[in-house]
């Protein structure tokens, strides 16, 4: 479970105290210069602590669940279908993207012969249930990439509605209503679907991605990447280090070029815009951006891409590229081991991306 009851007393006390301090500093009748100075001091010294407290409240208490429910209600009214999606049909297998919340994707993976379905990150149980009923399939498993409510919020309702449904995920990540813990390289079998879990910590401690093996249906493999990897982007490192995230991204880099990437969010246009800042001469990025802009003008989904495409324009998968290293980060150290320098470059890319996003 991602929460066990109401917030611990210390979280309430510390959180309320910090909020009180912030309010005093922001509305104090002191001089403007003094207020600005204290405000800056508060922001620079307390930003990380405030974030950690807020993050703990979101991931470990009922407050996070209540916040998710509010997001869900608003999104159903404002973004009833943020993107137009198309299923991918293979030989007896269907992958159905389901737009949820304001920019998330859930997925149904369907064995069309056995009429069995697996849901990936079902954050809006109503939308996922509607897709299940429309497809006329039986939900037998939920694959959860990580604990954040915008990926795991539908676990309770769907597992209660479908009595035989199993909930898979990492035991290290506090997945709500987890029934079947998975470790790195464990395989979930549903009909002809063979889905391998890969440990990719960094965004959260127990983040998993799921690789649908293409061999049984003679098609491409499919990677359901949650918040590890997006089209031309990657997730923030909330519960790890740059080294941890780099190792997880390298796990993905080891997969085949024709692997289809099914990410957890519709971030393509924003991510490609940032990629153009750090690699303005990248022609593959420019071509992809033109295609994405045409898609988004009609509110069409941009997924999937392929890992081969991502290698050509996703800066977070290109920390080994000399041009990017020379432009943004240090080169290999005197020992010849470039692991540290690649991690530093990844950290700098993440910092620049966060700044770019706020503009």
From TrEMBL:
This protein's GO CC annotations: mitochondrion; plasma membrane
Keyword Thylakoid among record annotations: no
Cofactor: Zn(2+)
Keywords carried by this UniProt record: Cell membrane, Hydrolase, Membrane, Metal-binding, Mitochondrion, Transmembrane, Transmembrane helix, Zinc
InterPro entries to which the protein is assigned, alphabetical: Clx_II_MBL (IPR035680), HAGH_C (IPR032282), Hydroxyacylglutathione_Hdrlase (IPR017782), Metallo-B-lactamas (IPR001279), RibonucZ/Hydroxyglut_hydro (IPR036866)
Sequence ranges assigned to domain Metallo-beta-lactamase in this UniProt record: 103-265
GO biological process: methylglyoxal catabolic process to D-lactate via S-lactoyl-glutathione; negative regulation of neurotransmitter secretion
Coiled-coil ranges (or none): none
Catalytic activity: a thioester + H2O = a thiol + a carboxylate + H(+)
Molecular function in Gene Ontology: hydroxyacylglutathione hydrolase activity; metal ion binding
Compartment(s): Cell membrane; Mitochondrion
Topology of this chain in the membrane: Peripheral membrane protein
Organism domain of life: Eukaryota
Pfam families: HAGH_C, Lactamase_B
Alphabetized SUPFAM superfamilies for the sequence: Metallo-hydrolase/oxidoreductase
Residue ranges crossing the lipid bilayer per the database entry: 50-68
Family to which the UniProt record says this protein belongs: Belongs to the metallo-beta-lactamase superfamily. Glyoxalase II family.
Physiological role: Probable thioesterase that may play a role in cellular detoxification processes; it likely acts on a yet-unknown alpha-hydroxythioester substrate. In vitro, it is able to catalyze the hydrolysis of S-D-lactoyl-glutathione to form glutathione and D-lactic acid at very low rate, though this reaction is not physiologically relevant in vivo.
Oligomeric form and interacting partners: Isoform 2 interacts with the sarcomeric proteins, MRLC2, MYOM1 and ENO3.
The protein's name in its UniProt record: Probable thioesterase PNKD
Species: Oryctolagus cuniculus (Rabbit)
Lineage of the species this protein comes from: Eukaryota, Metazoa, Chordata, Craniata, Vertebrata
């Amino acid at each position: 479970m991602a929460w066990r009851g109401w917030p611990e007393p210390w979280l309430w006390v510390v959180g309320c105290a910090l909020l009180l301090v912030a309010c005093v500093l922001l509305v104090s009748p002191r001089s403007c210069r003094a207020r600005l100075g204290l405000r800056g001091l508060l922001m620079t010294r307390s930003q990380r602590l405030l974030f950690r407290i807020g993050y703990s409240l979101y991931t470990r208490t009922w407050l996070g669940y209540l916040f998710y429910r509010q997001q869900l209600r608003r999104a159903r009214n404002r973004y009833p279908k943020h993107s137009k999606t198309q299923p991918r049909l293979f030989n007896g297998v269907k992958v159905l993207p389901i737009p949820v919340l304001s920019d998330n994707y859930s997925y149904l993976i369907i064995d069309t012969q056995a009429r069995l379905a697996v849901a990936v990150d079902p954050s809006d149980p109503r939308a996922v249930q509607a897709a299940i009923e429309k497809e006329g399939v039986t939900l037998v498993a939920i694959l959860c990439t990580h604990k954040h409510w915008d990926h795991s919020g539908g676990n309770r309702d769907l597992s209660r509605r479908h009595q035989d449904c199993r909930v898979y995920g990492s035991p290290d990540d506090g997945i709500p209503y987890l029934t079947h813990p998975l470790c790195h390289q464990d395989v979930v079998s549903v009909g002809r679907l063979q889905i391998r879990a890969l440990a990719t910590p960094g965004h959260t401690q127990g983040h998993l991605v799921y690789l649908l093996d293409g061999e049984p249906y003679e098609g491409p493999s499919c990677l359901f990447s949650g918040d590890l990897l997006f089209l031309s982007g990657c997730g923030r490192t909330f519960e790890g280090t740059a080294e941890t995230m780099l190792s997880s991204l390298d796990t993905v880099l080891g997969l085949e070029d024709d692997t289809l990437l099914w990410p957890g969010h519709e971030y393509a246009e924003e991510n490609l815009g940032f990629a153009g800042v750090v690699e303005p001469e990248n022609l593959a990025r420019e071509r992809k951006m033109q295609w994405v802009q045409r898609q988004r003008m009609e509110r069409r989904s941009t997924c999937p891409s392929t890992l081969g495409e991502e290698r050509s324009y996703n800066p977070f998968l290109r920390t080994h590229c000399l041009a990017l290293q020379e432009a943004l980060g240090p080169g290999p150290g005197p020992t010849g081991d470039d692991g540290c320098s690649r991690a530093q470059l990844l950290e700098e890319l993440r910092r620049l991306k966060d700044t770019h996003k706020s503009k």
